[in-house]
């Protein structure tokens, strides 16, 4: 228990960095994922192919490789540098870049499968009563697709928050996993520290799962 | 679009014109991005034959890539076998009639699903020498952590698969005089298995990708051998090595995913089960994992 109290502040500031990363990555991956999903359902073959290629490449590559590639490939080799003075700031944005790129592929798939859950009959009925394309998307398809997407998006979000522990691969070595490893290296393994960090993640992750599950059941489209 | 779409009607003359215009514009934009990337890479000398040539030599494959790949596959296979056993046991335990089995199983499954995998790997890796005496526990830590995490996800898949079978099936089983064990073994599991297979295989894709976390605890896997050891022996090959091992990972994962899709199609047609296949994303889905 003493170790947890002694290293508590350091671990807590590491955990806050995970949360900050989660917020930023959540924002960027939602934006990029929506654009990708729009590309993948567009009537333009070129855009569909580009979207599908992106999703298949990013989704099937281990996140650790994506992040290490951002760090050693994009930054070291190709010279993509966000901050020349502070290496950690550079790594921070590389981690945001890599994880947003990775997560947006999953966001895209969740959104696309949401659109696919809307039965053809709904769209046909919308056209039959004379709605235009934008009207039918806004009034018929989007409301139903949105409800089907809540639970999968919740899972993507939870996975993303848990994945922020991998950012050390991008050189950002001050997140909670890296701090925990450092602590274990110096003082040996500590069960209270591990339990403390796990509890911190549970407190963030479980309510999101419960809330999105509850919301998707409450809003579920009766078919 | 050839196939019918929820979003779009078959385009008329103006629609076709607009779509063709959009196609042309997007093709130009994509081409511009591609050209820019190629020029940028060329500027940094990434097309030099010197940094690609090593990947055509036997030493690179024999010395680095194949041992790494074998390490990855070894960890993945061990993890998959144990995770499947863990998932089957805990999935069925969660459906038990006895509260003292159901509740602890539920707590364990929910807990391990929520713990970030890397933290679990670190913890086991640092804890093992204290408990089991000194030694190399990299493989042990990866396999155990993969088992606990993916096994918990698989437990949910198993549970969903069994619950997806219509109630009439088990009622019919009880009606002909089977006991609980018999209903599970003869009626629910065989039908549930068909329904849960696609989701199981796509979770195995996640497991395969997660072996790359061995990077952090210097396990000799594809990522470590190909991305840390190899570029230090052949300077300047960082980017090329990333491309090569990326292609290997993607090929393995896509092959498994294609197998899952095939299984799903097959079980959708199958008349041997009364259950619908468990949706791949019904549980935590392939989004989980790093």
From TrEMBL, chain B:
Keywords: Cell membrane, Membrane, Transmembrane, Transmembrane helix, Transport. Pfam families: BPD_transp_1. Belongs to the binding-protein-dependent transport system permease family. This is Amino acid ABC transporter permease. It comes from Nonomuraea indica. Its main location: membrane. Residues 69-260 form the ABC transmembrane type-1 domain. The chain crosses the membrane at residues 21-39, 73-93, 105-125, 137-158, 193-219, 239-263. It is a multi-pass membrane protein. It is found in: Cell membrane.
